[in-house]
Amino acid sequence: MSTATSNARAAYGRREAPVRTPRAHEYDLLARCTQKLSMAWMRRKEDFPMLATALTENLQLWSALAADVAEKGNGLPPPLRAQLFYLYEFTAGHTRSVLDNRASVEVLIDINTAVMRGLRGDGGAS
C-alpha cells in the first residue's frame, strides 16, 4: 500500500464521535454520579472519604442544574424548572443527612435515575 493510500485511509477512514446533545451530556453526568454514589455507599464503612466525594460531586452537579434552571433564558417550562430546583434543594438537605449518618443515598440515586429516565424520554417507565 502506498503512503498516499495509507494517509487517505487514516484521514477519511476515521469515524468521528457523533455530535452529542446537551441532554446526552446531562444524562452521562447523572449516570456517572449515580454510579459513584452507589459504589461509595456499598463501601462507606471502609472508605467514608469516597462517599463524601461522591456526595459532593452529586451536589455540585445538582447545583449546576439549579443555576441553569434559574436562568431567565432557560427554555424549560416554568413548572419543570421549579420541580428541578426543588430537587436541588432536597438533594442539598439530604446530602447533609447522609454525611451526618442519618440517611442513606437511596433516595438520591432514585432522584438521579428518575431524571435520567426523563432525559431519555421515558419518564413514565418504571
From TrEMBL:
<keyword id="KW-0969">Cilium</keyword>
<dbReference type="GO" id="GO:0044781">
    <property type="term" value="P:bacterial-type flagellum organization"/>
</dbReference>
<protein>
    <submittedName>
        <fullName>Flagellar biosynthesis regulator FlaF</fullName>
    </submittedName>
</protein>
<dbReference type="InterPro" id="IPR010845">
    <property type="entry name" value="FlaF"/>
</dbReference>
<dbReference type="Pfam" id="PF07309">
    <property type="entry name" value="FlaF"/>
</dbReference>
<keyword id="KW-0966">Cell projection</keyword>
<keyword id="KW-0282">Flagellum</keyword>
